[in-house]
Amino acid sequence: MFRKILIANRGEIACRIIRTCQRLGIKTVAVHSEADANALFVREADEAHLIGPAPAAQSYLRGDTIIEVARRTGAEAIHPGYGFLSENAEFAESCATAGIVFIGPKPEAIRAMALKGAAKALMEDAGVPVTPGYHGDAQDEATLLAAARRIGFPVLIKAVAGGGGKGMRRVDNESDFPELLKSCQGEGQSAFGDPRVLIEKYIEVPRHIEIQLFADSHGHAVHLHERDCSLQRRHQKVIEEAPAPGLPDAMRQAMGEAAVKAAKAIGYTGAGTIEFIVDMSRGIADASFYFMEMNTRLQVEHPVTEAITGLDLVEWQLRVAAGEALPLTQDQVPLKGHAIEARLYAEDPEHDFMPSTGTLSRLVFPSGVRADSAVAEGDAVSVFYDPMIAKLIVHGPDRDAALEGLRTALIHTRAEGLRTNLGFLRRIASDADFRAGEIDTGFIGRHLERLTAPWPDYDIPVNSPPSPWHDATGFRLNLPPASPVDVRHLTNALHEAHEASEVVAPMPGLVVAVHVKEGDTVEKNQPLIVLEAMKIQLTLKAPRAGTVTGLNAVTGEQVIEKAVLAAIT
Ligand code: ADP
Fold it and tell me: In this predicted model, what pLDDT tens digit does every residue of 438-450 receive, in sequence order?
């Protein structure tokens, strides 16, 4: 195993890699830009070196400078994280030339997967199902239009060098084709330096399900099951979970086998992900899945796989790069329970998700939940890089439990000082359709209005003193601490007339106390019912003075969210 490695990255993933290295007794070298001089990962690494000004092109993308620092500091290997140089074949080659191990696949494997068209052709030859379409060399309009006709509209034109959701055009009919082709070719050229495109059948109701792969240099390859990343906003992942809701075992197995076949076809080593698009038009049980692309690096969402397998994927990456064999065979890879990850961003969902910058005056995560953070309280989020603040990962025995855990964790997360998507994440985690597993990549777009509605404010008393949730008492989003629960805040989905008279469960939970009985006369704000979920107790109070009617809460019984528990008349 290595004694010292350099991390050619920043933020959350740099912190993540440092954690595993510390556990394994490996020293870490951070490289950073001027803007990151006081960043969390710089503070946490054993040593840190300035490599340039804030813009990534002058710092985190300077492969030559980074290799020079690795040489000078005696780092034996470089972990590229994700983004930046992680899928740069030339950088991997330069590392090898300098006698430094690149913690990732061989340059040839990175190249084989870099262009979407070539990757599809390779996968087709390996017997992996690919999205029906055209990915040939001829690029004249007549050939491409003929291909689109054959495939049938709607089609998707994709820049072969595209990435990050850029360089894609949906075309609904033939007359729009020439113009959209031109604009896609133009974007391919300007953003990626390559005007070539491919044409694909446009899958109208898709799910994005990807397989985590690992291969070593001894010819072994295994998959670590799937992740469902269908909850996307403009092709960017927001929530990821594993296993994929409703995925039949046979399909899981077929996808896993196809992914392993793909890895073997290119002599892959290290961690990789095969992304599949799943056509949901006939439901999940009869769905077809198609290879979309391979990411030749660790993914942002790898923690959900760690949660369901109990494995440390960064440790596996280090072991494979050091020449060790994979620690487990396919049969030995565990699959336990269900895990969900939510990405907390410095952005403003109420204003078209505009990125937000500033200092995090308060940042608190509940205990018992994995929070992979890029920053600590008091740190700044700058304009130069990805606005991700942290990822919250929750694991439970099943999907319902994991979802409830996520929802509760999000409710008790505090991120103040700038705008964040916390309310949006809380809305998603509480959404009945999402909870029912009715997801596809269009889910967020379709329900944007209800998912970006401001999160209602209410206070949450906490009953276990050592918990950081303790300080949640009186908490209100963007408002001074609240007086006792006012249920009117909780029911603003409901009609005016009902607002003042109904007592509604704001969260699913267990009824732990009922202080009144049918026919009792109560004062406004008199405690009526106490609900509990995880470690939180919530006291529901009378919205007005009157008589209790329609009492529908029994101590010891579970209630669902938005259940009407009583009325005051
Ligand atoms: P990028 O490399 O830019 O991330 P991908 O090929 O991975 O592009 O596709 C990104 C997203 O676009 C997918 O997760 C999916 O939501 C959507 N997408 C890709 N291909 C298709 C298709 N053929 N039909 C419908 N949606 C697609």
Answer: 999 999 999 999 9
CB of 277 within 6 A of ligand 1: the answer is yes
Distance, C-alpha 96 to centroid of its chain: 32
Taken as a whole, the chain contains a residue count of: 569
What topology does CATH give the domain 206-451? Answer: D-amino Acid Aminotransferase; Chain A, domain 1 (3.30.470)
Which CATH number does the domain 134-201 belong to among 3.40.50.720, 3.40.50.360, 3.40.50.1370, 3.30.1490.20? 3.30.1490.20
Residue 533 has what pLDDT?
62
Helix (H) or strand (E) holding 33: strand 27-33
Task: Please identify which residue in the block is written with the tokens 């109904």.
Answer: 502
Topology at the third CATH level for domain 4-103: Rossmann fold (3.40.50)
Q: How far apart are CA 541 and CA 525, in angstroms?
A: 5
Locate tokens 């290290």: which residue?
270
DSSP type of residue 325: P
Q: Where are the domains of the chain?
A: 4-103, 134-201, 206-451, 499-568
CATH number of 499-568: 2.40.30.10, 1.20.120.160, 2.40.50.100, 3.30.70.270? 2.40.50.100
Among 156, 170, 229, residue to substitute to test ligand 1 (most atoms within 8 Å of Cβ): 156
Written as one string, the DSSP assignment of 501-530 is TEEE-SS-EEEEEE---TT-EE-TT-EEEE
Catalytic residue among 16, 227, 297, 435: 297
Beta bridge partners of 302: none
Record the pTM: 0.81
Residue 150 Cβ inside 6 Å of ligand 1? The answer reads no
The H or E element that residue 108 is part of is: helix 107-114
Q: Which of 277, 279, 281, 299 to mutate to test the pocket of ligand 1 (most atoms within 8 A of CB)?
A: 277
pLDDT tens per residue, range 121-179: 999 999 999 999 999 999 999 999 999 999 999 999 999 999 877 899 999 999 999 99
Structure tokens at 496: 């005016």
- The separation between CA 518 and the C-alpha centre of its own chain, rounded to angstroms, equals 46
